[in-house]
Amino acid sequence: MVDFVNKLYKNQALFYKVFLFILTAVLIVYLLPKGGKFKYEIPKGKPWQHESLYAPFDFAILKSDEELKLEREEIAAHNIPYYEYDKTIADRVKNRALEEINEVFSDSILGNYRSIITNFVTSRLDEIYRYGLAQENDRMEPGDLIYLRKGNEAFEIPYKNVFKQGEIRDYINQKIYDANLDRFSNELLEIFFNSVSPNMFYDNEFTERVLQSKLDNISYTRGNIEQGSRVIAKGEVVEGNKYDILRSLKAEYESQVWSKSNYSWIIVGYSALVAMALLMLLLFIQKYRPAIFENNVKVTFIFFNIIFMVMLTTLVVNFDVNYVYVVPLCILPLSLKAFFDARLGMFTHVITVLLLGFIVPNSYEYMFLQIIAGIVTILTISELYKRANLFISVGQITLVYIISYFAFTIIQEGTIEDIKSEVFLTFLLGGLATLFVQPLIYIYEKIFGMVSDMSLLELSDTNSSLLKELSEKAPGTFHHSLNVANLAEAAANEINANAMLVRVGALYHDIGKMENPTYFTENQVSSVNSHDDLAPEESAEIIIDHVIRGIEIARKNNLPDRVIDFIRTHHGTSTVYYFYMKAKEDDDNVNPDDFKYPGPIPFSKETAILMMCDSVEAASKSLKEPTSILIDGFVEKIINKQMEEGQFLNANITFKEIQMIKKILKRKLKNIYHLRVEYPE
Q1: Domain 460-673 fold
Q2: What SMART domains does the record point to (predicted)?
Q3: What are the residue ranges of CATH 1.10.3210 in the chain?
Q4: Cα(536)–Cα(580) distance, rounded to whole angstroms?
Q5: Dihedral (C-alpha) 384, 387, 388, 389: value to the nearest 10 degrees?
Q6: Which of these, 553, 355, 526, lies nearest to 464 by C-alpha position?
Q7: Which pLDDT band holds residue 91 (cuts at 50, 70, 90)?
Q8: Burial level of 92, CB count in 10 A (0-12/13-18/19+)?
Q9: Is 208 helix (H, G, I), strand (E, B) or coil?
Q10: CB of 335 closer than 8 Å to CB of 440
């Protein structure tokens, strides 16, 4: 039992990766569509390359989007509007008109013509309100039909039969003339204009409800294909009705309700493919990025990004598949490149795109566009912390999307007339969304505790509060750190290490000397040495202690762990040789371990570079009359001693790279000391 627990403890990192692998695979499979996957791509406008295809079951032919659009427009164009007839208004108008007769005409006239005038007015009102009086409607034509609703009944009548307010004057004048009542023309017109008002009104709500009901009842299919019927023969061009039939077969195949047995097999198939893709990624990281593979946080970060992109794409596809290109998938390689390197970013991007091919329609087109966009992203953005680079790259990514879509449309349709301008807008939105990568990287830094080049650029600012404090309290140490930073950056560039990281590490590696600055020679401005009154052991303890103090100050100021690593390892397990030899003069049996730094030794190229540059720069101050030969000799001596002590055993740095670093340091130091050939007087 104890052995099992010990084995479990020793392999906990491996068990965590297995758990992470299984969890990621399960989540992705859960998000994938669970219908069957149509095994053929439908090459619109091209010959059918496969064997003749026969219908495996009965299915209906789906109408195309264009057909449905035309049908909706046709229904909307021929939809008959509804008008509400208000009988109470017509009754009120008649009563009002009778009152107006008594007010307009004198008693003497009414005495002889009351019956004639009353009959004329009531007859005309009956004709006007037979179908109703309406206001002018610019949308209607005389030949159009309308529905007139009277209570619960609706009557279909021509719109021309309805009186409009603008027609009243001409109608009344004509009727006055026909009835030989010209002498009462003004009075009669006054009666009608004072009493007549519209009594039928356009019922927009009811009309729209009827229209929506018709639109909802549109059939999305036209005709059926029976099981066993030939769908398409080998060599036939996939276009027109053949394309619609194939598209309908694919939709029916993928939307079928599968039996429990079929469903289980689909899950098994998806699981195998997803697991294989994720396994390839893990094996790539293990073989080519072992440092990342050993770090569970970094592996978790990579898998989290994959899950995040799959979830985001699934949400967009479920909402509206037309917006699938709005998802800024290029954020994935950008994020990984910011924290790791371009090769890992590209490999992860390709794996993610392959997984998304199960989710999106037109998977070949989608994968082609996204992989090309990912390659452009990796190639064009060299320094993410430069905002101009990001904007230029986003423009290039958007342009690649547009060109690729344009080319695919021409291949499929054979014309540019079917290009949808709204698709270009989705590409533009996707490109703009890619700009979110900078705040996202900041969020990732806080969540996963990693550091990107953008943060390193901020930390390299010598006007930061911590470095300003160092320059004030320990100016000699600050100057030394600047010199080491310049040397380390040049060395890192020579062997293709992370120059920005090693520069930042060099700037902060000696911040622990702020605690007791005068105990370090570079800060001693007078001939008085603070170590003169101390025992060698005490002096060594103060010197060694600057590493521990540096780590404490760094943590207090929230410096990233990758920067703290430089503070921790820049002396490795080397010996404070001066005080060790001084103590040995007094006691030959002195314990050398009391004069050694606690370590650890450097475990990366960058930390190894800093150790070499720090030792060489500090030792160069002791050179009285530096010459080219002297500099070459002491650089070789210092670095060779570090190699003999095994300081670089854990760093993934080669002997060839160490030799290249020596060469750079020699050249830089010669430039610093301005060595020239001595000319004769």
Answers
A1: Hypothetical protein af1432 (1.10.3210)
A2: HDc (SM00471)
A3: 460-673
A4: 7
A5: 10
A6: 553
A7: confident
A8: middle
A9: helix
A10: yes
What pLDDT sits at residue 679? 47
Angstrom CA distances, 225 to 58, 220, 230, stand at: 6, 15, 9
C-alpha dihedral over 32, 259, 64, 80, to 10 degrees?
Answer: -110
Interatomic CA distance for residues 196 and 181, integer angstroms: 20
Among 450, 487, 459, smallest CA distance to 609 is for 487
CB 261 within 8 A of CB 254: no
First to last CA, the chain: 86
Question: Token digits for 550?
Answer: 């540096």
Q: Which residue has the higher pLDDT, 518 or 659?
A: 659
Q: What is the pLDDT of residues 187-232, one digit of tens each?
A: 778 878 888 888 888 888 888 888 888 888 888 787 787 777 887 8
Virtual CA dihedral for 513, 519, 524, 526, nearest 10 degrees? 160
For 17-66, the pLDDT digits (tens) are 999 999 999 999 988 876 656 666 777 777 777 777 777 777 788 887 77
| Contact assessment for residue 192 and residue 21, using Cβ atoms and an 8 Å cutoff | no
Q: How many CA atoms are closer than 13 Å to the CA of 138, on its beta-carbon side?
A: 0
| SS3 annotation, 133-197 | EECCCCCCCCCCEEEEEECCEEEEEEHHHCEEHHHHHHHHHHHHHHCCCHHHHHHHHHHHHHHCC
Contact between 519 and 552 (Cβ < 8 Å): no
Report the alpha-carbon distance of residue 168 to residue 665 in Å, rounded.
104
Q: How far apart are CA 98 and CA 79, in angstroms?
A: 40
Residue 309 CB neighbour total at 10 angstroms: 21
Determine phi and psi for 47, rounding to 5 degrees. -65, 145
SS3 call for 435: coil
